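WP5 quarterly update. Target: Putative Tn916 ORF16 protein. Source organism: Clostridium perfringens. Length: 686 aa.
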Amino acid sequence: MFEYMIKSPKKALNEFLGISQKTISERDFRIYKKKSIEFLEIQSMRFDIRPLRKSEIDSLSARVTKRGHQSADELVKWSDNCLEVEQDEEKVIIPLRNAYKNRVTGLIEQGDKILKIQNDGFTSYQTFLAINNIPSMEFPGVEYIKLIQDMNIGAEVCIHIKKFSAEESKSKIKNKAAKINAQVNEALQGGHIPSDEEYEAKAAAESLEKEVKRNKHIIETSISICLASTKEKIVRNNTKVLMEYFNKSLKFELINPHTDQYRIFLDFIPANSNYNRDFIQLVPMETLAGGVFGASDHLGDSVGAYIGYTVNGNRKVYLYMGRATKLNKSPAMGIYGNLGGGKSFNANLIVVLHVLFGSSALIFDPKSERSHWAAKLDFMGDLISIVRLTPNDEDKGKLDPFNLYNDNIDEACDLAFNIIVEIANTNEEEKIILKETLNKMKDEKRPSMKRLIEMINDVSDSDAYKKEAERLVRKLNASKDVGLSKLIFGDGTEKAINLDNRLNILQIDNLTIPDQGTKKEEYSEEEKLSSCLMMLMGSFTKKFAMKKRNTFDLILFDESWFLKNSAAGRKLYDFLARQGRSLNVGCIFNGHSVLDIPTEEIKNTITYKLCFKTNNRDEAKRMLEFMNKSVTEENIKMLMELENRQAVFQDLDGRVGVIEFDAVFEQFIECFSTTPEDTLNYEDVS
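Structure tokens (predicted):
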């Protein structure tokens, strides 16, 4: 048994007790503070980080002798103990020699691979382990530091890091490789077979050399683990469990040294240097990053509705997309994956939960899968409006561009041009006639698609494009009264669609949606018309988005892939993704593939990302790149083996994890399911 204050080296004791005779000028203090603020700003862009308060720093220092006891988590506050004096016309800060005497108390006894620290009323048993070798891992690989946290064994981890420049990295690796090669050659010259450890060390050195050539940098690190409790048996049992798991399952070399317990104890003191240099390792930065990647299971927002839980850690996940606008970010979400994986179900869940929390929403429902919502979600009363457009005469002209944009003639003319170009498959001469007529339309008192046909028909006989005008009129007249085409051609007397309820669902009967892989030039007439109607519905959502409201509102685009197939659709996609922040409107793009996103610029505006199961290996790679995760075999396999209603989720803060959605209520589950019911009654006769 020995007193805690005389066993350590003088330097460690001085630094730990705060009685160093070194001084710091006020100017240097300001420089250090400025550097720390710069560091904080840079790192805050990568992960959640904040400066410690003084009471927290004091508490971290005070707890080192109390680990494993509840008093270790109590906040303490020590008074400031320093002098400020003038020295050479400059203010200097001098720590008082006796500043921290008796602030950290405890009598330390060295046991068998354990420290026994006697405090008033309890004994803290602490053992220290060191990672002596980390196996080769992909980044993000085995999150070994997070695994320690998940084991819930009262562990603390201390990581000392020193980064080398490119030249220093090369020199370090060269020296290490030369030393290992010398050992191997010496063994061979002496007629001995080099040990497996020597060959492994040589392979590791060669791997590091390649790493330095590729990434230029390596780091020097030591990673230590402290296990503590007020009961010695618990500490020893936890040590056994941890070492077996790391050494056997993960193939690490984790040791529990006899002689270095006190040295590693000093390493754990906040702001101390790395005193125990016996377990220093040279590793690529990715190796260390792989251990802490996603070290927190926290996903989602701190406010909003409960949507599910993390698969690893079972932590609840909350979501409120309106938080993005408060942080000056785009409130856009992309959902991708196989059919039947839970995409539509959980997109529905997200929208309805936002409505219940005060938002208004518009759902673009091209497959008419939500007709039953008002009946199934009866508790929402009159909050749900379903607008179902049919080929019947009562819906005639309701999607006329001049009806949709009755307050914006320029937008109406642009949309009318795009629709006619698609429907009539116009040539260049017909496009010229169409543009000229639309310019005249801007002066009409009651503009409409039918009036547009009349005006094209009235083109002067002397016009050079008279024949083209007649041909275009003939094409449009052949379409205007056929089936769903009636929705497009109004006469200017139709009432505009009203979507002022809290949850608005827009549907069109009998849409023939082309397969995603079908080329545009191969569309049938029905598919071409359906594509135009989807474009019109998409434009209607733009008008919904631009309506001034005091709440954060949401738009859900089902089958969002179709937006990429036309210039107008791509323009709308870009508008909603980019302008959502300023309009205080979020948009959910529910598609099949990351390739649905029209451009890289739009892809970069999508902040919330949900990737469900995919059977396509190339798509899995695209999903990983979309979420800025490394394309590794492990990650590809993870995406391809997700279960129904599980997804890889990237939240607003860039954190990534696997979540399982939880609709909670049976009413939601029955309502949102898009899986056809099995009406076949049969008995298993196998």
